[in-house]
Amino acid sequence: MKYQDYGVEDFIKDEFFVEWVKNPNSKSNDFWKKWMAKHPEQVPVILQAQEFINSMRYDDFVELREDEYLDIFEGILRRHKAGRVVTVGNSPVVKRWQRIAATIVLVLASVFGLYYGLHETNPVGQHPPEVVQFIKKNPLGQKLLVSLPDGSKVKLNAGTTLIYNSEFGKSNRKVELRGEAFFDVQKRPDLPFVIRSGELTTKVLGTSFNVRYYEDENKIQVLVVRGEVAVSDDIGSSIVLNPRDMLEYNHADKNIRKTVCEDIASIIGWKDGILNFNNEPFEQVVEKIHKWYGVDVEIEEGLRIEGYYTGEYKNKSLEKVMDGISYASGFNYRFINENKILIYKEP
To answer: Quick one: which H or E segment has residue 172?
Structure first.
């Protein structure tokens, strides 16, 4: 089984993982840091496994046969449901098995969702399980597909953050978005899907649509591809969008404008690897390149490039895009380093 398929129980049984948690070194730290960056969806599982490992002494842990493992757990479960506290002595051997049994309960409760079953009533003074926040942060220059617990899919554009909590799919389907994302939402009439993006709240039951909200831009944009979407702002204005409808919200004047999108591909093409420029000024072209490829673009002092640029690039390298734009706009460019480009004009 690959690490990306591991659950909490798998990680705490993995010798390499346990050794890293208990005795980290530069080599193992480097491996797990890079692995978690590549598999951010597994970070909550890893953190939970680390917590379990750090709360127990592995030198006292012994390998159990499957029948022993189940017998111990079933015995603890029976005693717990009977409401009895069982005292079994204070010898080192007994304490050792107590630690093993406690670990089994914690692991099974986490992996198989038995926490609620083991706590059918909430005793006075006992706090309910803590709600955990999950943050999916996609850096510049990358795209990321996120599968949510309800089966909905969210494609994140470069420089985008998606936030939801551990109650998602249970008591709510709420997410917070900063950046741009394409949502393909599973239909749940009993539990609307709600996206908070700046001053706008978008509510759906099941549909496909695009939301764009970068904090450094002066507008929020929502485009519906399939289904129906209801969008409202913080002062109570609301509007319903149908397929091909596009909403733009202006931060400055708090104005909501609804239009019909004539070219959907130019808006959502990013999710299929298409970088699209639609009659855009050079400043916007530079900003798109910055986000898309994760590079800084420096413009030679005093250089002004007038006019507007239109073009489409599907899965093209940065060099190919820069060659096309520089030829059309009449400038030169060179790489200062792998993360920075200088745009200049020779005399």
So the answer is: none
Angle made by CA atoms 174, 193, 110, in degrees to the nearest 5? 55
Query: What CA–CA distance (Å, rounded) separates 234 from 168?
Result: 23
User: Which candidate, 287, 286, 322, places its Cα nearest to that of 305?
Assistant: 286
Give the amino acid at 167. E
Task: Check pLDDT > 70 for residue 128.
Answer: no
Mean pLDDT of 282-290: 93
Mind spelling out the 3-state secondary structure of 38-100?
HCHHHHHHHHHHHHHHHCCCHHHCCCCCHHHHHHHHHHHHHHHHHCCCCCCCCCHHHHHHHHH
DSSP string, 298-347: EE-TT----SEEEEEEES--HHHHHHHHHHHHT-EEEEEETTEEEEE---
CATH 2.60.120.1440 domain position(s) in the chain: 133-266
Q: What is the pLDDT of residues 178-190, one digit of tens each?
A: 999 999 999 998 8
Residue 30, φ and ψ in degrees, nearest 5: -65, -40
Sequence length of the chain is 347
Q: Are 310 and 277 in contact (CB under 8 A)?
A: yes
Q: What is the pTM of this model?
A: 0.62
Whether residue 326 contacts residue 334, with contact meaning beta carbons closer than 8 Å, is answered with no
CATH of range 133-266; options 3.40.50.300, 3.30.559.30, 2.60.120.1440, 1.10.150.20: 2.60.120.1440
Query: Which CATH number applies to 273-344: 3.55.50.30, 3.90.550.10, 3.40.50.2000, 3.90.1150.10?
Result: 3.55.50.30
> What type of residue is 304?
R
Dihedral sign, CA of 162, 163, 167, 173? negative
